Amino acid sequence: MRAGDALVIEDGALVRVIGKPEPLVEIVAANAHELARLAWHIGNRHTEVQIVGGHLRIRRDHVLEEMLRGLGAILTFIDDVFDPEHGAYAHGEHDHGH
Length: 98
Prior knowledge:
The chain is α+β, with helices and mostly antiparallel strands. The chain is built from two helices and eight strands; from the N terminus they run βββαββαβββ.
């Protein structure tokens, strides 16, 4: 389940899922090519990533933060709900843990 989803309980009422904010890093690059390059490096480390408009978000990780700075990324530290991409092996509504 993801933030914003809801469950219908027996009496027909809805129970809405609310995400808990957590420490994240917002990643910005000089242009789309550089952002794609940063995304490749993040993915190469099998790290969950959220795509929000023209930037990326990952959970705080000092090793990744140093790598990204070294690659020219602009980092901003925020607290927000993390909603990463499902990944290539997620099928429909269910991720089978691949």
